């Protein structure tokens, strides 16, 4: 059994930082502790009590526990929790001071301390939440069944943290995410204070001119709008919640970037890797190595190319691109942002998330030769064994680089060829929602193919025709 701080470390950190931000106000305003308590106005069993029962109490208080016969107290449902065990109901509604549960968790009036063991005591904030809930009537949240398992609706640490962030002003919330971003950045071993830039959904940090970081967050906002539109997200279901932000970490050298990945993700990067991402309920970030190594030159060719006359296809322009870095900062960040968000919001197959990431990135760096490299890699599979590689791809198997190249070719085919383009967004949305489990059904219903083999053959024919002119060298 653990203390609440150990059960909800993310929330504790957020509330600590929130308290720091609020305490900087005038001295006659509430203290950080008062402000923290004020964040939650109305007690909620699902939010305030259920997480404690699930994470601290249910290990012993369930019918399968070896100690169950001793106490007879089952906390797995709200109904069984209120019924209590051999000693009776644990709560006296609207009277926490007379409730058995409060006596036990405080170890007062001769009652045995619960949870047992000196290292497992509940913290004062956890006890206060239980008392407030009891004094408010000890009610179950509206819409919940008292016979439903508590663990199914107990608020997670992340949801509690999001709710706490939602109570803050935009300025206070920005401070919280800046603090988080800087803590992540320090995992690289870098000590110097980086520049920062904050937008509606992003906070970027790195040793770059601030103008470039601001440009980066601006471009990320554009990509977010485009991706949201493509995925057909309904109103009220944003890709990034209003109280959340994605951190974008920018490094100018490969060594600190690698140190960061080793520290935060406990893995070593491939030599050619220049970007990574992590999108979880607790933390969302993109980390990138700046191809321009921190210079103040522009790093996106989207606007520059828009001013030029169109010269053939994107693939031909890429072959004529001027000397310089193969990728751009915005392109690298876009690739991992899209791949991460697509993977987070549903059950997307990796090949689709990778393909969409490259497809969206190509839009912001259309002159990059990187995409011709991917096309050549896909084309080469026609020589090696297309059917085998395509089946591996649709099953999310194989080398990650091959998976990315094949995923990109699939997305490029379906999103650009006139016969397949109109239906591609729907196809992608189905795969993201179902995780590829209904791939064959989606192929038949959306693209009218009789079999996966037929679809793979059509895909291969398109690659053979569209990419044939790229075969000669890299």
From TrEMBL:
UniProt keyword Signal, yes or no: yes
Give the signal peptide as a residue range, or say none if absent.
1-26
Chain spans, region Disordered: 292-326
Name the source's superkingdom. Answer: Bacteria
Where does the Cytochrome C Planctomycete-type domain lie?
A: 57-116
Name the residue ranges with Basic and acidic residues bias.
293-306
Going by the UniProt record, its keywords in alphabetical order are:
Signal
Q: What is this protein called?
A: Cytochrome C Planctomycete-type domain-containing protein
């Amino acid at each position: 059994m653990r203390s609440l701080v150990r059960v909800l470390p993310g929330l504790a950190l957020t509330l600590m930082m929130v308290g720091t931000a609020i305490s900087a106000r005038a001295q006659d305003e509430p203290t950080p502790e008062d402000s923290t308590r004020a964040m939650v106005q109305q007690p909620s069993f699902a939010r305030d009590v259920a997480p404690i029962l699930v994470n601290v109490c249910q290990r012993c208080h369930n019918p399968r526990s070896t100690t169950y016969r001793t106490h007879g107290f089952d906390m797995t449902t709200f109904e069984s929790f209120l019924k209590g065990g051999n000693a009776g109901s644990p709560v006296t509604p609207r009277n926490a001071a007379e409730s058995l549960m409060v006596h036990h968790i405080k170890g007062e009036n001769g009652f045995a301390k619960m949870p047992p063991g000196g290292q497992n005591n509940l913290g004062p904030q956890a006890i206060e939440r239980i008392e407030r809930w009891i004094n408010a009537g000890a009610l179950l949240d509206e819409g919940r069944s008292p016979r439903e398992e508590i663990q199914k609706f107990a608020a997670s640490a992340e949801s509690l943290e999001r709710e706490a962030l939602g109570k803050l002003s935009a300025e206070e919330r920005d401070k919280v995410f800046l603090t988080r971003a800087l803590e992540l950045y320090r995992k690289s071993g870098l000590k110097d204070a980086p520049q920062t830039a904050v937008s509606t959904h992003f906070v970027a940090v790195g040793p770059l001119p601030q103008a470039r970081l601001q440009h980066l967050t601006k471009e990320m906002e554009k990509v977010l709008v485009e991706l949201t539109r493509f995925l057909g997200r309904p109103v009220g279901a944003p890709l990034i919640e209003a109280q959340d932000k994605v951190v974008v970490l920018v490094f100018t050298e490969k060594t600190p970037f690698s140190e960061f990945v080793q520290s935060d993700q406990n893995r070593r990067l491939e030599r050619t890797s220049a970007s990574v991402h992590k999108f979880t309920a607790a933390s969302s970030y993109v980390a990138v190595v700046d191809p321009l190594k921190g210079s103040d030159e522009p790093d996106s060719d989207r606007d520059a190319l828009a001013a030029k006359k169109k010269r053939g296809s994107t693939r031909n322009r890429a072959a004529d691109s001027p000397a310089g870095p193969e990728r751009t900062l915005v392109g690298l960040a876009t690739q991992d942002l899209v791949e991460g968000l697509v993977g987070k919001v549903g059950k997307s197959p990796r090949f689709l998330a990778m393909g969409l990431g490259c497809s969206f990135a190509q839009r912001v760096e259309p002159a990059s030769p990187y995409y011709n490299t991917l096309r050549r890699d896909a084309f080469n599979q026609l020589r090696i064994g297309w059917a085998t590689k395509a089946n591996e791809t649709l099953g999310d198997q194989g080398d990650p680089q091959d998976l990315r190249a094949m995923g990109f070719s699939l997305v490029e085919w379906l999103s650009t060829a006139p016969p397949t383009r109109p239906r591609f967004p729907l196809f992608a949305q189905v795969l993201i929602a179902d995780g590829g489990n209904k791939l064959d059904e989606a192929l038949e219903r959306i693209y009218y193919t009789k079999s996966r083999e037929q679809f793979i053959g059509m895909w291969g024919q398109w690659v053979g025709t569209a990419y044939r002119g790229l075969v000669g060298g890299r």
